Amino acid sequence: MFSSIRSRFTIIYFLLVFIAMIIAGIFIIQSFEDYNLNIASERLDDIAQIMISELSKIEDGGSLINNKEPIQASIDNHADIGLREEIFVIDAASQQIVASSSENFNGDIIEFLDDSLVIEGLLGKQMEKNVQISESVRTKDKVYPIYNGDELAGVMYLRYDLMDIYTSLNKTRMIILQAILTSLVVTIIIGFIISKSITDPINDITIKASKLAEGNFDQMVEVRSEDEIGTLSKTFNFLTQELKKGISEVSREKSKLEAIINYMEDGLIAIDENGEVIHHNPKALKLLGFDKELDQDLIGDLMSIYNSGRLNNGIGSKNVKYNNRVLKVNFAPYLDERSVKVGAVFVLQDITEEERLENMRREFVANVSHELKTPLTSIKSYTETILDGAVDDPEMQRTFLEVVNSEADRMSRLVRDLLELSNFDSDAVRFKKSEYNLNQMINSCILKVKVTADQKRQKIRVHLPEQPILAIVDYDKIEQVVLNILSNAIKYTGDEGEIDVEVRAGETTQLFDIVITDTGMGIPEEDLERIYERFYRVDKARSRALGGTGLGLSIAKEIIEAHHGKIAVASEYGHGTKVTISLPIQGD
Predict the structure, then answer these.
(1) Of the four listed, 10, 25, 123, 409, which is most buried by Cβ atoms within 10 Å?
(2) C-alpha span between 190 and 195 (Å, rounded)
(3) Domain 433-584 = CATH 3.40.30.120
(4) Which neighbouring-strand residues pair with 152?
(5) pLDDT tens digits for range 497-533
(6) Whole-angstrom Cα distance, residue 26 to residue 22?
């Protein structure tokens, strides 16, 4: 009942008016009653004064009982003129009523009059009293002492019927009660209307505030007045607008931050002080090999990394290996508003490729050093021998010089290959493309390697299309690739082996394929993905025995990809190798 402001306001307003009306009603009725009783008392005083004055004329120096008849006659005269008051004259000596205006009086004072008033009158006191004769009869009785000189002669007892007064008073009570009830009904209606005018804007604000709390910020309340409620409504609207602006700005920043975090190339994991993951981005899951959630063991590993690698300020970095990846884990604590550490943030960077490139760089430097050191050592030793005059035989000197020349050519080829790769790395290579007959190119390449193949009694089979394929390529570069593949096939195929060369249409009409297949020693499966690395050799000892720098396939791959083509190697160790070169017919 009292749960709403409207009901409480209405009830309190009702109670205030009700109490005020009751107090006012009681005051009015009491005042009205006192007023009428005072009038009755004053009337009795006036009658008593007249009667006592008349009695003083009737008395003849004797007692009242001796003047009974004149006193009665005087009282009857007053009764004849319409007096409603009852008059009793009591003799002091005999204490009997000597005269009365009442026709029903039987002469018994005790039964008819109030004895306490009579006694007070006989004691010489003027007294009055409201007497309840019956349930329906109430009177105002008043006694006046009658003196004969200084001696108390008797008492005049006057009685005023209050029935009209109390009848009028009861009617007044009913009128006041009806007025109170009517006022209360009007009060309830007015209180409801007033409370409604107060509570409706508050309820509206409450409903809009609830929707605001649910995330709907398009809430505005109607300003219905210029009072405190209106000020509250204006303040709510201002708050809503400012909150909407703030939320919008926070949302934009949050969206921006989420976009940055979700699409950043580094993984991010945030762990609170209880060891629970509170945020991670998709890159972190990808780097760590998880689908949706992180393993609890991983969280323990991260905390171990944090504890082992942090510096005094809690910030640190550590490289770890995880799922065949090399990860650089950067970490730092994050603080709350009191600058108390409440967790840690880990940023994971995949440096596998950097590590691989670093290893390749180290291997490259080592290989170049080794490849240069071997011919330089040979050149220096043979040259020193000749300069020291240890060889006098011209034929021997010629042999030594041929070795020096051969090693110089080897160094020259190495430097040339390195320069060519460097040009590819810096995009400094310029291709001279034109339309060429591929059948003629393949035949020219086979002719250049046929002598070497014949020395090993190898058989080269060529499969060319009847209708020659005309393609726009850099002739020298593509020939260099084909010659390199053919040379490798001859080099790593044993005596009396077979080599197949085929030119055919590609997967689409815009492509053509050059396929070279040998029956050589093949390449182990674990080495296939590394054969394009610079200076990488499947079997280093065997490769050096057969010659070569380990840069041929690297250069070939660069040339093919620069032509927007691709090269694929399929091999089974001990059973040969198949190299497929796919190139566009129309070039760029």
Answers:
(1) 10
(2) 8
(3) no
(4) 147
(5) 899 999 888 888 888 889 999 988 888 887 777 777 7
(6) 6
